[in-house]
Amino acid sequence: xxxxxxxxxxLAVTGLVLAWTAATVSGEGPSGxxxxxxxxxxxxxxxxxxxxxxxxxxxxxxxxxxDVIIANMDSGGEIIAAKTKAILxxxxxxxxxxxxxxxxxxxxxxxxxxxxxxxxxxxxxLAPWLRQD
Length: 133
What we know:
With about 130 residues, this protein is of the alpha/beta class. The chain has 4 helices and 4 strands.
């Protein structure tokens, strides 16, 4: 029961943070002025994780014109990319080519992800967080 309450509390806090983030970058700055366009990279462990877990946030970010890149850690294909772009409006869907194992098992994982983010130069990176109690 305690774990269920913790899970619900984490879900509620996550929802509030995401709602605040979306409102903050909604496209309007102070006094109705236009805010700057931001680049977001959504790191997704597997193909379709970003769409299912964060599709609403991606939609909220795309609507006011922010650049959204979905970076899947595994391998994928153009059909999935085309559907994600059409449905969510993400400008770019890419695969980093890691095998379907824990990322810490890939010896060069940190370097590859760091180089990828250096090339993309995002303002914000959205990524899953493994909670360990």
